[in-house]
Amino acid sequence: MRPRGATVAVVGLGYVGLPTALALRAADHRVIGLDNRPERLAEIEQGRADLIPADRERLRAHRGRPAFELTTDPARLGAADAVLVCVPTPVDARLVPDLGALRAACATVVERAVPGQTLILTSTSYVGTTRDLLVKPLAARGLVPSRDLFVAFAPERIDPGRPAHMQQNTPRVVGGVGRSCGERAAEVLRETAGGVRLVGSAEAAEMCKLLENTFRAVNIAFANEFATACGALGLDPAEVLDAAATKPFGFMPFAPGPGAGGHCIPCDPHYLLWQLRGGPVSCRITEAAMNALAERPHRVAERALETLAEHGVARRGARVLLLGVAYKSGVADVRESPALTIIGALARAGAEVAYCDPLVPALTVDGRPVPRVTDPVASEWDLVLAHTLHPGQDLGWLDGTAPVLDATYRLADLARRSVV
């Protein structure tokens, strides 16, 4: 494959695929963006995709140009020198991996694969996915990695809403199905990353991604537990955390909050637990952390009801405003957001719940639309639950208004503040 100026197809143009396609185009590759959702392609073509500012500028510069092609036609994969698979890998309601989108995408890539191509899987999944969904089906077609084409796993490391963590500044881990496969994949990705770390196998790269996000899940669960312990002892968790973070070794700060949402933390560790379930190895710490994360939004809702009672307000008919509902600061994404569970629990308790989030124009919970408030000062609230604080957001109106349940632990200066 040519180091620069190659044609690279990106399968799936979601929160990972689109920034990846833009980074590849910025590296002077011709890009074919494939997605089976015409509405997503229209959103991209119209510049309405949720991106950090730098990627929004890239999209503005490249959309509509011949070297940045958007299509729903899988036949276009045959024209690519390399193909990246960037589709979601969620879990279902029983916390079992939902591999439907990944299986379908890999089947399409295998069907359209041609000799000489480099195929790179980036979607987080169980150890062995690359061999199961790419290598074995390719072998059934008579295509052998390192002989006829090149196959590798290179997990995405995108941090939505964080301009400081651009792809080109972040090292990329690459594991090939053989050394030459890893080297070819590294050639494709090198110009889009802050360096490439080759590991010995696709399986090692797959496990690396599971380690990264399981590490985060365990530490977030611990941060939440420690915040609760601080509250029980009359201490401000944020003050203690900020003080501990001054230590330059042996400590890494993780902020407590209302729970963990998004595409990674609530989902990825379950791929590891699912794969090991029933085997000789148990991951008790991971299991405990995931159970704690799942319970956290319910505890926040309970604390909200307790706070209402402390201020003499009955739960039925109480007017509660959630400040921010996105799963993290700076994004419009509500997938797996703790806010969804919190709103549902409060509504079932009889509260009248609304939300204020400048990045989320509409929200549905349990099949019902949640009222959106654009001017929170114009109404009276029995409780404001601070869930997600976005950059540049005006919070001056909070002081002196309704009681605030601060699930972010970052509003210590408010007079009528409680914490979870």
TrEMBL record:
SMART domains: UDPG_MGDP_dh_C (SM00984). GO terms for molecular function: NAD binding; oxidoreductase activity, acting on the CH-CH group of donors, NAD or NADP as acceptor; oxidoreductase activity, acting on the CH-OH group of donors, NAD or NADP as acceptor. GO terms for biological process: polysaccharide biosynthetic process. Keywords: NAD, Oxidoreductase. Residues 321-413 form the UDP-glucose/GDP-mannose dehydrogenase C-terminal domain. The keyword Nucleotide-binding does not apply. It comes from the Bacteria. PANTHER family: UDP-N-ACETYL-D-MANNOSAMINE DEHYDROGENASE. Belongs to the UDP-glucose/GDP-mannose dehydrogenase family. This is Nucleotide sugar dehydrogenase. It comes from Streptomyces hoynatensis.
